[in-house]
Specification:
Layout lengths: L1 H7 L7 H28 L4 H14 L6 H12 L1 H18 L8 H23 L3 H13 L12 H5 L7 E2 L3 H22 L7 H4 L1 H29 L6 H11 L3 H12 L11 H11 L16 H4 L7 H28 L5 H35 L1 H4 L7 H17 L8 H18 L5 E2 L3 H17 L6 H12 L6
């Protein structure tokens, strides 16, 4: 009985954030795999024994030491449990030497202690996440079969890779996570600097209040617009720089014929040239036949430039009607995503008002995404045939130059400003969802492992900045921070 009473008195409050972080991370990483497993079972004819083996792998993979749940627990523990433990040890040590009762540490001292613990825990978590030999082996095999023109990426010769004596060493599994943490840390530093210097005479809020208000209102939309431009440009011309799942999602939302994308890429490479027979006429000839258009429309040797009607893919000659049709199709596509999410959110406290608010929020978010897609396509048409040639004659900027990248650039620069359709509170959340992905496209996704220490320093320092602001006595903050961190992690 005494043992049972003593067990019931055990206080789990200090380790609650760690356990919560591990449980949430396990749920977030395992749930999608379970859904994928259920789809696979429904479509395939696996035996019961095979199904159980697959299910066991799904459930136990995330329990491995080098998976995200363990790393998440270490990260959150670095900002909550570990500082408490170290603080208690320090106070106990001081009390022994001074022979006085343990004193509470100064607030600034404890803040520095939490920052140090967060840095060390992030350093350890980074090492755990990168202890994945399967990832290194698969990456080596894929890089051996690919031709990469990037001096910053280590690409050994194929025959060396296939030799048993060669053991390639790659890094880059956590590059998305690192870029996400860096963007969040940069946001924290900028906001802190802005807030702490408000009393200074040179601060914009004191000298130019209107300018300061303008900067606050346009900061998040500008970040999103620039990030969206980088992402869309990469999706067109360097899709390998985007995460595979994210690239697939953008392709599904864009809903464009891959032959048109290929034609634009070939035009940029100089293999699809107007006025010359480069052997690329069959590329768009099949699309012309499917749309009931003359095959000459897709032949760069006979048509200069290719009419927008072909790019509209059956929506007619009008660029405006094409933009409206894109808006409607994208809105339907977005509603299929946002409505289920709102339904899940309403399960907590269903009511008539919350249902209406959920539908309204889904419609607003869907309109934002639909405007994003429609403005991209309409800007492309305006640049290449409608407005661009009237502003700058074809003698200065030729149709070849427009279709080699300038028209796509116009679409990339225009689409991101649709963020103004979202509520101000949502703009920051969306902006810092896409900003890390834009940053990740500007750096090598795979690099020689000898440079991994640089990424580890950036990762640990960024996580320390983000988690130091976390209040250890509020578990809901653990959920919020962990949810944001999950946005940046790769599929492990």
């Amino acid at each position: 009985m005494s043992i049972g009473r003593r067990a019931r008195r055990v206080d789990l409050t200090p380790v609650t954030p760690v356990l919560r972080a591990y449980g949430l991370a396990y749920l977030f990483t395992t749930a999608p795999r379970i859904f994928a497993f259920l789809r696979r079972v429904r479509r395939s004819h696996l035996k019961l024994e095979e199904q159980l083996v697959v299910l066991r792998n799904v459930l136990f993979t995330s329990l491995q030491l080098n998976r995200f749940p363990t790393a998440a627990a270490v990260l959150i523990g670095g900002a909550t449990t570990f500082p408490r433990l170290v603080s208690a040890i320090l106070r106990w040590t001081i009390s022994i030497f001074t022979r006085q009762k343990p004193l509470h540490l100064d607030k600034n001292v404890y803040l520095c202690l939490r920052a140090a613990c967060s840095f060390l825990s992030a350093w350890l978590a980074f090492g755990l996440l990168n202890r994945d030999e399967d990832w290194t082996r698969k990456r080596a095999e894929s890089r051996a079969a690919a031709v990469v023109d990037d001096s910053t990426v280590y690409v050994p010769k194929r025959q060396d890779l296939l030799s048993p004596s060669h053991s390639p060493s790659y890094a880059g599994k956590t590059i998305d996570f690192t870029s996400f943490a860096f963007c969040r840390a940069l946001d924290v530093v900028i906001i802190s600097a802005w807030s702490r210097t408000r009393t200074r005479s040179w601060h914009p809020e004191r000298r130019t209040p209107r300018l300061a208000s303008f900067l606050r209102e346009t900061a998040d939309p500008s970040i999103f617009a620039m990030s969206a431009a980088v992402i869309m440009w990469s999706w067109f011309y360097a899709p390998e720089r985007l995460p595979r799942e994210y690239n697939h999602w953008v392709s599904k939302a864009a809903d464009i014929d891959p032959r048109l994308i290929q034609a634009l890429r070939l035009a940029r490479q100089g293999n699809f040239v107007y006025g010359e027979d480069t052997g690329q006429a069959p590329l768009l000839a099949s699309l012309c036949r499917e749309l009931g258009l003359p095959e000459d429309y897709g032949d760069p040797a006979k048509t200069n430039p290719i009419p927008c009607e072909l790019y509209h893919c059956g929506s007619g000659k009008s660029c405006e009607f094409h933009a409206l049709s894109r808006f409607w199709r994208s809105w339907e596509f977005a509603m299929e995503i946002y409505v289920p999410l709102q339904v899940l959110a309403l399960l907590r406290a269903p009511s008539s008002e919350s249902i209406l608010d959920g539908l309204r929020n889904a419609a607003i978010s869907s309109s934002f995404l639909a405007t994003f897609v429609a403005s991209f396509y309409y800007a492309v048409c305006l640049a290449r045939t409608r407005l661009g040639p009237k502003i700058v004659p074809y003698k200065t900027i030729t149709p070849q130059m427009w279709d080699s990248g300038l028209c796509v650039l116009a679409g990339c620069l225009a689409c991101g400003w649709s963020i103004f359709l979202e509520k101000p509170k949502r703009r920051q959340e969306i902006a810092f969802f896409v900003a890390p992905r834009a940053l990740a496209t500007l750096i090598p996704r795979v690099y020689d492992k000898r440079y991994q220490r640089r990424e580890q320093v950036v990762f640990a320092a960024s996580i320390a900045v983000v988690l130091t602001t976390l209040k250890s006595n509020q578990n809901r903050n653990v959920r919020g921070v962990l949810g944001r961190l999950l946005c940046g992690i790769l599929n492990d």
